[in-house]
Amino acid sequence: LEGAGNDFLLGVGGWARRLESEPHLVRELCDRRRGIGADGTLALEAIDADRVRLRYRNADGSEGAFCGNGTRCAARAAVELLGCPQKVVIETGWAEIPAAVDGSSVCLELPPPQARPSRVEVALPEGISSGLLVKIGVPHLVIETTGLADLDLEEVGPPLRRHAAVGPEGANVDFFEVEPGGALKVRTWERGVEAETLSCGSGMVAVALVVMAERGADHIELLPLSGDRLFVEALGAPPVCETRFTGPARFVAKIDPAEEFLRAPGS
Q1: What b/e readout covers 88-121, taking b as 16+ CB neighbours within 10 angstroms?
Q2: Which residue among 33, 80, 153, 264 is least packed, with the fewest CB closer than 10 Å?
Q3: pLDDT in tens, 134-163
Q4: Could you give the dihedral angle defined by the CA atoms of residues 89, 220, 242 and 43, in that order, rounded to the nearest 10 degrees?
Q5: Which residues pair with 248 in a beta bridge?
Q6: How far is 141 from 135, CA to CA, in rounded Å?
Q7: Is this prediction's pTM over 0.85?
Protein backbone atom coordinates (compact mmCIF):
# COMPACT_ATOMS: atom_id res chain seq x y z
CA LEU A 1 0.00 0.00 0.00
CA GLU A 2 1.00 3.63 -0.30
CA GLY A 3 -0.16 6.67 1.61
CA ALA A 4 0.62 9.91 -0.22
CA GLY A 5 3.68 8.24 -1.76
CA ASN A 6 4.94 6.67 1.49
CA ASP A 7 4.94 2.95 0.60
CA PHE A 8 4.65 -0.12 2.80
CA LEU A 9 4.51 -3.89 2.73
CA LEU A 10 1.59 -4.98 4.90
CA GLY A 11 1.25 -8.49 6.29
CA VAL A 12 -1.67 -10.22 8.01
CA GLY A 13 -1.83 -13.64 9.66
CA GLY A 14 1.50 -15.47 9.56
CA TRP A 15 3.09 -12.66 7.60
CA ALA A 16 2.19 -10.18 10.35
CA ARG A 17 4.05 -12.32 12.87
CA ARG A 18 7.09 -12.61 10.58
CA LEU A 19 7.25 -8.89 9.82
CA GLU A 20 7.04 -8.11 13.53
CA SER A 21 9.66 -10.60 14.66
CA GLU A 22 12.20 -10.86 11.80
CA PRO A 23 13.99 -7.53 11.18
CA HIS A 24 16.47 -9.16 8.79
CA LEU A 25 13.58 -10.26 6.57
CA VAL A 26 12.13 -6.75 6.67
CA ARG A 27 15.44 -5.35 5.41
CA GLU A 28 15.53 -7.84 2.54
CA LEU A 29 11.90 -7.31 1.54
CA CYS A 30 12.25 -3.52 1.62
CA ASP A 31 15.39 -3.54 -0.56
CA ARG A 32 14.36 -1.75 -3.77
CA ARG A 33 16.92 -3.57 -5.90
CA ARG A 34 17.02 -7.12 -4.59
CA GLY A 35 13.72 -7.33 -2.74
CA ILE A 36 10.24 -5.89 -3.27
CA GLY A 37 10.94 -2.34 -2.12
CA ALA A 38 9.22 -0.21 0.52
CA ASP A 39 9.79 2.51 3.12
CA GLY A 40 8.76 0.06 5.84
CA THR A 41 6.49 -2.81 6.86
CA LEU A 42 3.15 -3.02 8.65
CA ALA A 43 2.28 -6.08 10.75
CA LEU A 44 -1.50 -6.03 11.22
CA GLU A 45 -3.57 -8.33 13.45
CA ALA A 46 -7.24 -8.22 14.46
CA ILE A 47 -7.89 -7.93 18.18
CA ASP A 48 -11.65 -7.37 18.18
CA ALA A 49 -14.37 -6.62 15.65
CA ASP A 50 -13.43 -2.94 15.53
CA ARG A 51 -9.86 -3.00 16.86
CA VAL A 52 -6.52 -4.03 15.35
CA ARG A 53 -2.89 -4.12 16.47
CA LEU A 54 -0.23 -2.54 14.26
CA ARG A 55 3.53 -2.90 14.57
CA TYR A 56 5.72 -0.87 12.23
CA ARG A 57 9.30 -1.44 11.11
CA ASN A 58 11.41 0.93 9.03
CA ALA A 59 13.14 -0.27 5.88
CA ASP A 60 16.34 -0.90 7.87
CA GLY A 61 14.46 -3.29 10.17
CA SER A 62 14.30 -0.93 13.16
CA GLU A 63 11.04 -0.57 15.05
CA GLY A 64 9.05 2.65 14.93
CA ALA A 65 6.55 3.56 17.63
CA PHE A 66 4.35 5.34 15.10
CA CYS A 67 4.03 6.01 11.38
CA GLY A 68 1.26 8.38 10.31
CA ASN A 69 0.87 7.32 6.69
CA GLY A 70 1.41 3.68 7.63
CA THR A 71 -1.37 3.86 10.21
CA ARG A 72 -3.74 5.29 7.62
CA CYS A 73 -2.82 2.45 5.24
CA ALA A 74 -3.33 -0.08 8.03
CA ALA A 75 -6.77 1.36 8.78
CA ARG A 76 -7.87 0.87 5.20
CA ALA A 77 -6.45 -2.66 5.18
CA ALA A 78 -8.28 -3.42 8.44
CA VAL A 79 -11.57 -2.54 6.74
CA GLU A 80 -10.95 -4.23 3.40
CA LEU A 81 -8.85 -7.23 4.42
CA LEU A 82 -9.93 -7.98 7.99
CA GLY A 83 -13.59 -7.01 7.74
CA CYS A 84 -13.49 -4.23 10.35
CA PRO A 85 -16.09 -1.43 10.27
CA GLN A 86 -15.22 1.92 8.71
CA LYS A 87 -14.52 3.32 12.17
CA VAL A 88 -11.75 1.27 13.71
CA VAL A 89 -9.16 1.67 16.47
CA ILE A 90 -5.50 1.04 15.59
CA GLU A 91 -3.28 0.06 18.53
CA THR A 92 0.20 1.38 17.68
CA GLY A 93 3.44 1.40 19.65
CA TRP A 94 2.67 5.00 20.59
CA ALA A 95 -1.05 5.13 21.34
CA GLU A 96 -4.51 3.88 20.41
CA ILE A 97 -5.52 5.75 17.25
CA PRO A 98 -9.18 6.03 16.18
CA ALA A 99 -9.49 5.95 12.38
CA ALA A 100 -12.32 6.58 9.93
CA VAL A 101 -12.10 5.04 6.46
CA ASP A 102 -14.03 6.45 3.50
CA GLY A 103 -12.82 4.63 0.41
CA SER A 104 -9.23 5.72 -0.23
CA SER A 105 -9.51 8.65 2.20
CA VAL A 106 -8.52 7.86 5.78
CA CYS A 107 -8.71 10.16 8.80
CA LEU A 108 -6.84 9.58 12.07
CA GLU A 109 -7.44 11.24 15.42
CA LEU A 110 -4.04 11.66 17.04
CA PRO A 111 -3.04 12.40 20.64
CA PRO A 112 -1.10 15.57 21.44
CA PRO A 113 2.70 15.64 21.13
CA GLN A 114 4.43 14.25 24.20
CA ALA A 115 5.79 17.73 25.05
CA ARG A 116 5.87 21.28 23.79
CA PRO A 117 8.18 21.84 20.81
CA SER A 118 11.71 22.69 21.93
CA ARG A 119 14.15 24.84 19.98
CA VAL A 120 17.32 23.09 18.83
CA GLU A 121 20.42 24.92 17.63
CA VAL A 122 21.98 23.11 14.68
CA ALA A 123 24.18 25.84 13.11
CA LEU A 124 24.77 24.49 9.61
CA PRO A 125 26.63 26.41 6.88
CA GLU A 126 23.56 26.37 4.63
CA GLY A 127 22.18 29.14 6.83
CA ILE A 128 19.85 26.93 8.84
CA SER A 129 20.53 27.94 12.41
CA SER A 130 17.73 26.36 14.41
CA GLY A 131 14.69 24.14 14.31
CA LEU A 132 11.96 22.85 16.58
CA LEU A 133 11.98 19.33 17.97
CA VAL A 134 8.46 17.87 18.04
CA LYS A 135 7.56 14.31 19.08
CA ILE A 136 4.53 12.79 17.35
CA GLY A 137 5.15 9.24 18.52
CA VAL A 138 8.64 9.62 17.01
CA PRO A 139 10.89 12.72 17.05
CA HIS A 140 10.88 15.29 14.26
CA LEU A 141 13.16 18.25 13.69
CA VAL A 142 10.99 20.87 11.97
CA ILE A 143 12.82 23.55 9.97
CA GLU A 144 11.43 26.38 7.85
CA THR A 145 13.43 27.18 4.73
CA THR A 146 13.26 28.90 1.36
CA GLY A 147 14.16 27.34 -1.96
CA LEU A 148 12.79 24.01 -0.79
CA ALA A 149 12.80 22.48 -4.26
CA ASP A 150 16.55 23.10 -4.62
CA LEU A 151 17.50 21.79 -1.20
CA ASP A 152 19.94 18.85 -1.37
CA LEU A 153 18.51 16.57 1.32
CA GLU A 154 21.14 13.90 0.70
CA GLU A 155 23.71 16.44 1.88
CA VAL A 156 21.86 18.25 4.68
CA GLY A 157 19.60 15.43 5.90
CA PRO A 158 22.04 12.88 7.42
CA PRO A 159 23.99 15.26 9.72
CA LEU A 160 20.76 16.78 11.01
CA ARG A 161 19.10 13.39 11.48
CA ARG A 162 22.05 12.35 13.70
CA HIS A 163 22.79 15.73 15.30
CA ALA A 164 23.71 15.41 18.97
CA ALA A 165 21.16 18.08 19.87
CA VAL A 166 18.20 15.88 18.83
CA GLY A 167 19.15 12.99 21.11
CA PRO A 168 20.98 9.68 20.83
CA GLU A 169 18.39 8.00 18.57
CA GLY A 170 18.28 10.90 16.13
CA ALA A 171 15.19 12.36 14.50
CA ASN A 172 13.33 12.66 11.23
CA VAL A 173 14.04 16.01 9.58
CA ASP A 174 11.16 17.98 8.03
CA PHE A 175 11.87 21.06 5.90
CA PHE A 176 8.90 23.21 4.96
CA GLU A 177 8.16 26.24 2.85
CA VAL A 178 4.97 28.33 2.85
CA GLU A 179 3.18 28.54 -0.50
CA PRO A 180 1.64 31.89 -1.58
CA GLY A 181 -1.85 30.52 -0.84
CA GLY A 182 -0.86 29.43 2.66
CA ALA A 183 -0.40 25.70 2.09
CA LEU A 184 2.86 24.14 3.24
CA LYS A 185 5.26 22.25 1.01
CA VAL A 186 7.19 19.66 3.00
CA ARG A 187 10.19 17.43 2.34
CA THR A 188 11.39 14.84 4.87
CA TRP A 189 14.57 12.90 5.48
CA GLU A 190 13.43 9.82 7.39
CA ARG A 191 15.48 7.95 9.92
CA GLY A 192 15.23 4.18 9.53
CA VAL A 193 14.78 4.65 5.79
CA GLU A 194 17.92 6.85 5.74
CA ALA A 195 16.65 8.63 2.67
CA GLU A 196 14.13 11.21 1.55
CA THR A 197 10.64 9.76 1.25
CA LEU A 198 7.80 11.10 -0.85
CA SER A 199 5.79 11.80 2.30
CA CYS A 200 6.02 11.38 6.08
CA GLY A 201 2.69 11.45 7.91
CA SER A 202 3.90 12.13 11.45
CA GLY A 203 6.21 14.78 9.98
CA MET A 204 3.25 16.50 8.34
CA VAL A 205 1.47 16.68 11.69
CA ALA A 206 4.59 18.01 13.42
CA VAL A 207 5.01 20.75 10.81
CA ALA A 208 1.29 21.58 10.92
CA LEU A 209 1.27 21.99 14.71
CA VAL A 210 4.25 24.36 14.60
CA VAL A 211 2.76 26.53 11.85
CA MET A 212 -0.80 26.53 13.24
CA ALA A 213 0.59 27.75 16.57
CA GLU A 214 2.43 30.58 14.81
CA ARG A 215 -0.62 31.57 12.74
CA GLY A 216 -3.27 31.06 15.40
CA ALA A 217 -4.95 28.70 12.89
CA ASP A 218 -6.91 25.51 13.47
CA HIS A 219 -6.40 23.74 10.12
CA ILE A 220 -3.80 23.56 7.39
CA GLU A 221 -3.13 21.94 4.01
CA LEU A 222 0.21 20.23 3.34
CA LEU A 223 1.84 19.19 0.08
CA PRO A 224 4.47 16.44 0.32
CA LEU A 225 6.94 15.64 -2.43
CA SER A 226 4.47 13.13 -3.93
CA GLY A 227 2.09 15.96 -4.87
CA ASP A 228 -0.80 14.54 -2.84
CA ARG A 229 -2.73 16.79 -0.51
CA LEU A 230 -2.87 16.11 3.22
CA PHE A 231 -4.89 17.95 5.84
CA VAL A 232 -4.34 18.52 9.56
CA GLU A 233 -7.00 19.99 11.85
CA ALA A 234 -6.28 21.09 15.42
CA LEU A 235 -8.72 19.74 18.02
CA GLY A 236 -7.52 22.17 20.65
CA ALA A 237 -4.87 24.87 20.99
CA PRO A 238 -1.69 24.16 18.97
CA PRO A 239 1.06 23.19 19.31
CA VAL A 240 0.10 20.75 22.11
CA CYS A 241 -3.30 19.41 21.19
CA GLU A 242 -5.06 16.48 19.58
CA THR A 243 -5.25 16.58 15.78
CA ARG A 244 -7.24 15.12 12.93
CA PHE A 245 -4.98 13.93 10.07
CA THR A 246 -6.56 13.10 6.69
CA GLY A 247 -5.13 11.86 3.42
CA PRO A 248 -5.12 9.06 0.82
CA ALA A 249 -4.28 5.39 1.38
CA ARG A 250 -4.16 3.18 -1.69
CA PHE A 251 -3.67 -0.50 -2.46
CA VAL A 252 -0.98 -1.23 -5.04
CA ALA A 253 -0.64 -5.02 -5.28
CA LYS A 254 -1.12 -8.33 -3.55
CA ILE A 255 2.34 -9.90 -3.32
CA ASP A 256 3.33 -13.53 -2.87
CA PRO A 257 7.12 -13.64 -2.30
CA ALA A 258 8.84 -16.42 -4.24
CA GLU A 259 10.15 -19.44 -2.35
CA GLU A 260 13.52 -18.88 -4.01
CA PHE A 261 13.70 -15.45 -2.39
CA LEU A 262 12.59 -16.76 1.01
CA ARG A 263 15.17 -19.58 0.90
CA ALA A 264 18.02 -17.14 0.25
CA PRO A 265 20.66 -16.82 3.02
CA GLY A 266 19.31 -14.76 5.90
CA SER A 267 15.64 -15.05 4.85
Answers
A1: bbbebebeebebbbeeeebbbbbebbeeebeebe
A2: 33
A3: 999 999 999 998 889 999 999 999 999 999
A4: 30
A5: 105
A6: 9
A7: yes
